[in-house]
Specification:
By secondary structure, the protein is α+β, with helices and mostly antiparallel strands. It has one domain: Glutaredoxin, CATH 3.40.30. The protein is 49% helix and 14% strand. α2 links the parallel β1 and β2. The longest helix has 20 residues. The N and C termini lie far apart (49 Å).
């Protein structure tokens, strides 16, 4: 099991190394970068209403489900034999045979965990605006966006 965790950490680091920050840099200064850090058991109303989407085209939205690692680890380690060498071999085969959807989920989770560490996020759900403002506990993105814009404009919350 320790070797499996080591392999997983190496795999996760490889995904993080491929992290691309291109979405954070925007040619348009008015664009708002919004990153949702959550888990599958916490519902976020991150789908903006049609009016909000139409009125505000400058939102770069990224959703990171941070519990994808546990799901991946469960899938990777299911029914492994007790022999460590055989377990390692089977786990490596499973990693090599991952489909694109699973790879994308693991990469999304790894990027989300890296972002959470970068921002110092210590609880979920969290909504990060422009990589510098964190709103905790809100599950309605429209409401959180309104709070952020009010704060940004110098208003009181």
């Amino acid at each position: 099991m320790i070797r499996l965790r080591f392999l997983f950490i190496v795999f996760m680091l490889a995904a993080v190394i491929g992290f691309n920050r291109a979405h954070a840099a925007s040619a348009n200064q008015q664009a708002v970068s919004v990153e949702l850090l959550t888990t599958a058991d916490r519902y976020l109303q991150w789908e903006l209403e049609a009016e909000t989407k139409a009125a505000d085209q400058n939102i770069d939205l990224q959703v990171y489900k941070l519990d994808g690692i546990q799901q991946f680890e469960t899938q990777l380690s299911s029914n492994l034999p007790s022999d460590p060498d055989l377990s390692k071999q089977i786990a490596m085969q499973r990693i090599q045979q991952l489909d694109e959807q699973t790879m994308a989920t693991v990469q999304n989770t790894a990027m989300g965990l890296a972002k959470a560490m970068q921002y110092g996020v210590d609880r979920y759900p969290a909504i990060v605006f422009d990589g510098e403002v964190v709103v905790y506990g809100m599950t309605d993105l429209s409401s959180a966006l309104n709070h952020y814009r009010t704060w940004r404009a110098g208003g009181r919350l």
